[in-house]
Each structure stands twice: as structure tokens, then as C-alpha cells.
Amino acid sequence: MIRRCIRAVPPHSLSQLGRCGFSTSRWLLNELTTPKVNYEAKYAEKLQKRAIEQGLSIEQLKQKLREEETTKRKEKAAVNAQTTSATPNAPSTQVEKDKATSAAVPPVSIPTRKDSSPVKPLTELLNLEKLLQTPHTAEQISLLWRAYHASRSKGTGRGYLCATIPLDAYHKMASVASKYPCFILPVPREGAQIAEEKTSEDQKAYEMYFMEWGFHSAPPEPKSSITDLFTKPTPSNNPKTSTILFTPLQEYKQRTSFATPYLVLTNYTDLASSHGIVLSRGEITPSTSGSIDAGGDGRYMLSQQDAQLLAMGIQKFYLWSEDQGKGERQELLRTFHDNPEGFKWEELLKHTDFSA
């Protein structure tokens, strides 16, 4: 569920001599006993590198560094002056000195992380910078997305789902999900314990899965070249990234928020504004107990076929809009949230044919 870094010469390196606390006599002694070093030539390469990085000439960079140093000195002098005026009488005890020091030093602000989303960034899956260096259509990116997931699990693709969603379809689903973030979906299961009753038509049993949507911050629009690093950042036009968790209803009832989801779907919106698509990725939870999933080999909590049925259920119950009227599926979704007592899971079984 791919990443960058350039270090520059610290701004204070060039002004280190000017900040020394030596007396005039000490400075003269050093001048007489120490060979002079041509710092201009010594750091010429680093200066040139940093100037290129900032898009400046050497002289412009030097002027900028001098201005920064002057600003720092003024700020330091202002802090010292404020401290002196705030404490006219020197504290007599060590405790008073400590209090004065703590009052003079401004509190250190710890920057808060802006990447608090639990979603693994798309850049860990695709090299977006390299991808955008040459033009790619939405269809080409969709092929790359499918090929990437098909190569997982030693080329079997086992344990993963993937799809490409048109942006307008994602907007519709997200709009419905913002109002109805939870629902249940049936999965045919031999010997299921949750849906004990069986239909008279096909004598099938069903296991219910509880699904819940979660929305996270909108990702920034990916950049295609190094020159973009120097442009002023703008607010992202991408919609919010979303995740959908699928958990057996019985397990969710017992453990609620501590229940382990068997399938996690993530909808990446990084390329929504640039290419009009949303990349969807499903991850089936690996099995830790060695229990055999239905139609599987015991390595995952859910079979590949059941995971696909659950993913299709999203499209079946969430891809609609208000102007389409009150269809049976939409009415089931509304009833589940607005009138839970009137919800009948038997009506849900009428829509278990996810091929429709």
C-alpha cells in the first residue's frame, strides 16, 4: 500500500565567524598565528548547489543569508531586552533564577502531524512522480494498477482486490455513504450460524457482514517535475480518501470496535483531479490461526470470491442518487439507518444475486 530528501548547508555555517564571542585581542592573536582560510573558495561548491536548489544566483543567496542572520540577531536582541525589562531586579535564589529563565524562553511548539490518516499513502504503491513525468491516460493507469496487484502474492494476486472508479461514480457513492455510512451485506455460506433460516428456493444459508465507511483527508495533487517544488502550494481539489471495513456481523456484535475486519477497501483519490479516476484497493486480512476460509487455502480470513461479492455489494447499494427515486435497495439502506426496527433482513436476501 512508494518515497525523497535533499539536505542543504545550514544557514549559520557561513556566519559562524561573525557570532564568535572572542575578544579583540584573541582575534588578533588568531590572525597572527593561524593561516587564513579562503572560505569563499572552500564552500563555493556548496553555495552553488544551494543557490541552484533555491533558484538564486550566488550573490542573491549571500544577500539572503546576510538578511536572515540580521533578522535572527534583531529577534534575539528583542527577546533579551524583553527579559531584562520583565525582571529588573536579579533573582536572589536559584529557584527564582529558574523561574525567570523559564519565563524568558518561549515555549517550544511541537508540530502536529498532518498525516494522521490510517491509510497507507498511494506513493508507497506507485511512483507517482515518475508516472506523471510522461503523459498517461486514465486507461493506461488502470492497466498499471491491475498489473501491480496481479503481481502480488508471487504472481497470483491472492489476498488483493483492485478496481478503477470513474470520478462521478465515486462522488455519488461518497455522497450516499456520508448519510448512510453503515450497512450489512449477505454472503452465501454453507453451514452459516448467523442467518439460520434458509430460503425455500435454493436452501442456502447466509453469513452477514457489517460494513462501515470512513472518510479521511483529501490527498494533495501529485507533482510531475522538480520545478513544482518551488511553486506555492495550493489547496487540493481532490475529494476525500475513504476506507470501507467488512467484519462478520457476529464478531462485530461481540467485540464492536475491537473486531478484526476481514476485508479493508481503500479508495485513493490522488489522481481524481488530474485524471478523473479513483483507484480502489482491497486487502483481505491474513489468517493468524490457520483456519480455512471458504474456498481458500487457510492463509486469509476471507476467500477471494467472497471478498469480490462484498465489493460488488458497495456498487449495488451505494451507487445511486436522490433523483433515481426510492428503489428497493435504496429503501433498505434508508430503513437500516432511519428505522432499524422496521428493517427485515429477509428482504435483503432478495438482492443476493450480485451479478445483476
Summarize the structure in words.
39% of the residues lie in helices and 13% in strands. It has helices at 24-33, 39-42, 44-54, 58-86, 94-104, 128-131, 138-150, 152-155, 167-179, 249-255, 272-275, 304-318, 328-338, 345-348, and strands spanning 160-166, 182-188, 206-215, 242-248, 263-268, 277-284. A six-stranded antiparallel beta sheet has the order 1-6-5-4-3-2, with helices on both faces. The chain is elongated and about 80 Å long.
- Amino-to-carboxy terminus distance: 31 Å
Mean pLDDT: 75
Tell me the domain tally: 2
Largest sheet: 6 strands, antiparallel
H-E order: HHHHHHHHEHEEEHEHEHHH
Structural class by sheet pairing and helices: alpha+beta
Strand order of the largest sheet: 1-6-5-4-3-2
Large-scale geometry: elongated
Q: Report the uncertain regions.
A: 1-37, 97-116, 192-201, 291-295
The count of strands amounts to 6
Rg, rounded, reads 31 Å
Strand content: 5-15%
Count of helical regions: 14
The helix content, as a percent range, equals: 25-40%
Organism: Irpex rosettiformis
Protein name: ATP11-domain-containing protein
Which descriptors apply to this entry?
single chain; 356 residues; alpha+beta; 2 domains; six-stranded antiparallel sheet; 14 helices; disordered N terminus; ATP11-domain-containing protein
